[in-house]
Amino acid sequence: QVQLVESGGGLVQAGGSLRLSCAASGRAFTTYAMGWFRQAPGKERELVAAITWSSVRYYVDSVKGRFTISRDNAKTTVYLQMNSLKPEDTAVYFCAAGPKMLGPFDYWGQGTQVTVSS
Asked: What integer pLDDT is reported at residue 59 of this predicted model?
């Protein structure tokens, strides 16, 4: 079992930055791929970025060059650095853990709200 707790969301103006953190507890964090998803009102949840245990990374096209996913296995924490934020980045962001970078994901956090004002 893995427990995930996100933090770092908030309200920011367009062009600003936020860093999300996801603290993991439980077994074998280093063996899991970690992902950041987001879900905007009325839209499906989408995978934004993911990282394997060996730090191979994936990004959805809409965030490439703006977002960076990283992990600190010693701290059992995964981060999402978000720069040049746009209003369309507004969503609830979820952290997830699973055996493979592109899913399926077995464990989920509760989510953190990110709101980007224009």
From this structure: 98
